[in-house]
Automatic annotation (TrEMBL):
Source species: Alkaliphilus pronyensis
Gene Ontology molecular function, alphabetical: UDP-N-acetylglucosamine 2-epimerase activity
UniProt name for this protein: UDP-N-acetylglucosamine 2-epimerase (non-hydrolyzing)
Pfam families: Epimerase_2
PANTHER family attached to this UniProt entry: UDP-N-ACETYLGLUCOSAMINE 2-EPIMERASE
Domain UDP-N-acetylglucosamine 2-epimerase: 25-367
Top-rank lineage group of the source organism: Bacteria
Major enzyme class: isomerase
InterPro entries: UDP_GlcNAc_Epimerase_2_dom, WecB-like
EC numbers for this chain: 5.1.3.14
Family designation: Belongs to the UDP-N-acetylglucosamine 2-epimerase family.
CDD domains recorded: GTB_UDP-GlcNAc_2-Epimerase (cd03786)
Length: 373
């Protein structure tokens, strides 16, 4: 029997975290020839994940440039993939989620009439400018994909509503749970001494991240000022904020939060360290997509610094609240969770709408069933 040739393409930290368990399993499978191409839309933040999951890419487009525009990424990925696809002629290209790497890799495969499998398909906020450009990237990728791996029933319904044929959609759970279950451990010891020294019982540790393009400018200023105010008002609060390597964000974070006591601005964390920090946190404050899926599994209240979410499952589960980007609202919502035990307990309930850690196995089974070699 001819082996199924699968070319997996990804480029940023979240894609790498969520594709890593799948790549590990593809590589172990006897009936699959797995090839990995990273675009390196992110460099350092991608390499940290590749190291953790022992992935050595076959191709590395190495496209990251500081301050790169979305158009720069688009052109470099499209051109870079052309030759690789021509040479490798895989049976299918796998992409993940909603970054510019995702959309452009799908387009490059389509141009050569190569099938596309979209992992984490069907998430929708309903607003093409929020998250920007991710909502459009997802929609465009859905138009180009031949198989849609939808994490949840809601994602499946979103695709049906847009006219995708139900027989081309498989509900698999989210591979982020596969990754999370692999790294989170009770009694985890951090490599970073500062994180080991914190008393997580006495302190209320808020883990924060913030990077979305639609929050650049005034919304991000509001978010940072709100956090500074909360810390000023609550002496038992410590904030750990691993700051994204995007220079826009680092500058602003340093300007507004750099001098606040009990706010630790640190470098992006290795995934194993970060996931275990989430597991010890009191609450999570973020505009990230992936963290909205991890927090419910860990039973951590999560306040989302955005005006809408494409992850309504976690809102229904009760762990997640979308609180917007006004300073007043953020301060009020965080202080509610710091002071009202009943509200806190209601939100700190472990529930896992995103899967059982077997999403990668389901995806591989579907690939083998559906693609003839
Ligand atoms: C990208 C994705 C976004 C995803 C996010 C995850 C697009 C348009 N955006 O946004 O969907 O949620 O990744 O983090 O696809 N940088 C480094 N080293 C790194 C990573 C980034 O120095 O390892 C700096 C570079 O200066 C780079 C900048 O951050 O130019 C922005 O990176 P980019 O990939 O363009 O956008 P993100 O905001 O990271
Ligand atoms: N993450 C990490 N180190 C950090 C911050 C986040 O490993 O310092 C992980 C986090 O657990 C999640 C993913 O990175 O799995 C989210 O990435 P990001 O917020 O950059 O992108 P998004 O999910 O918003 O697309």
């Amino acid at each position: 029997m001819k082996r199924l040739k699968v070319l997996t393409v990804f480029g940023t930290r979240p894609e790498a975290i969520k594709m890593a368990p799948l790549v590990n399993r593809l590589e172990q499978h006897n009936n699959i020839e797995s090839i990995v191409c990273v675009t390196a839309q992110h460099r350092e933040m991608l390499d940290m994940v590749l190291d953790l999951f022992n992935i050595a890419p076959d191709y590395d487009l190495n496209i990251m440039k500081h301050g790169q525009s979305i158009s720069d990424i688009t052109v470099a990925v499209l051109k870079g993939l052309e030759e690789i696809l021509l040479k490798e002629q895989p049976h299918i290209v796998l992409v993940h989620g909603d970054t510019t790497t995702t959309f452009v890799a799908s387009l490059a495969a389509f141009y050569q009439k190569i099938k596309v499998g979209h992992v984490e398909a069907g998430l929708r906020s309903g607003n093409i400018y929020s998250p920007y450009p991710e909502e459009m990237n997802r929609k465009l990728t859905s138009s180009l994909a031949n198989i849609h791996f939808a994490p949840t029933k809601e994602n499946y319904s979103n695709l049906l509503k847009e006219g995708v044929d139900g027989k081309n959609i498989c509900i698999t759970g989210n591979t982020v749970i596969d990754a999370l279950l692999q790294v989170v451990k009770d009694n985890y010891v951090f490599h970073n001494k500062m994180l080991n020294d914190i008393n997580y019982e006495d302190k209320k540790v808020i883990v924060m991240t913030c990077h979305r393009r639609e929050n650049w400018g005034e919304p991000m200023v509001n978010i940072f000022k709100a956090v500074a105010e909360v810390v000023e008002n609550n002496r038992d609060v410590e904030v750990i904020f691993p700051v994204h390597l995007n220079p826009h964000i680092r500058k602003l974070a340093q300007e507004i939060l750099g001098d606040s006591c009990r706010i630790h601005l640190i470098e992006p964390m290795e995934y194993e360290e970060f996931a275990n920090l989430l597991n010890k946190a009191y609450l999570i404050l973020t505009d990230s997509g992936g963290i909205q899926e991890e927090a419910p599994s860990l039973g951590k209240p999560i306040l989302v610094l955005r005006t809408e979410t494409e992850r309504p499952e976690a809102v229904k589960a009760g762990t997640l609240k979308v609180i917007g980007v006004s300073k007043k609202q953020i301060v009020e919502e965080v202080e509610n969770l710091l002071t009202d035990e009943i509200i806190y307990r209601q939100m700190a309930t472990a529930s896992n709408p995103y899967g059982d850690g077997k999403a990668s196995d389901r995806i591989i089974q579907e690939l083998l069933n559906r693609i003839s070699t």
